[in-house]
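User: Can you help me understand a structure? I only have the sequence.
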Amino acid sequence: MTDVARIVSRIDTLKPVSHITTRLLQLIEDPDTTGADLAAVIQYDQSMTANLLRLCNSVSMGSVRKVTDVKQAVNLLGMEKLSSLVMLADSAPNFRSGQSGYDLGHGELWRYSVSAAIIARELAEEKDAGDVSLVFTSALIKDLGKVILHTYISDAFDEIRDQVSGAGKSFQEAEKQVLGIDHAELGALAAEKWGFDPQMVDVIRHHHNPLESDSQGLALPIVYMADCICMMIGQGVGADGLAYRYYKETVDRLNMTALDMQQIIVRFREKYVQIEEMIQLSAGE
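Assistant: Let's start by predicting it. Here is the structure, written out as tokens:
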């Protein structure tokens, strides 16, 4: 088995996204889906129901009445936010531990991933990007490959750092050069294996190199922009730091001004307490 094949085989060590979550994502993409359709899928999964009700009854949801069943949750949240919370709870186990190779401590990658997903969802709603759920989920799990790759990064870090500082490569390019695969490609392979939407797979694969994608939609630019904003505010910046390329052409597709970006950052900081609560609840902390 080659080194790359050995790395890819470790996708099986991740907790796969549940069949129910996958089904929910498919339903969200169908314009004919109703809230009742989603509730019918969720209500027979005890763990998912418990996680969802716990999240819905958190302080950040702001509901006066306690939510006691899935139908109430659907009515309170709407389909898009419902799918986001389900995805949060389902994805948390993969991200909770530290990723030492990237110099990320316990919970840091999860905090960064949730932050990027929330920023991406806000951008998708503002830009009327269509499938908000797809954008949110893509941003949430785009760095899933780091969960696997960080152990290999630890062993090869000096060589990767030399490629970045000496050869002028981005961190992702250095990963590919030294290890034969980068974290974005590895995350895309996991998403493919779990049967995710091809557009979502494409966003995960190209979230650091958007010009290599043929996608004409706004999902990829939005996720790329959310990632950039997180780096700007120092959220989830580990050993790879800011060692990624900036693609102005991709950002320009969103028609965002400097003021727009400042406002997004301000709103994010205003909601940060709620975001922290959501992170802790979804991770079961």
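Now, to help you interpret it: The mean pLDDT is 85. The chain has 15 helices and no strands. Let me know which part you'd like to focus on.
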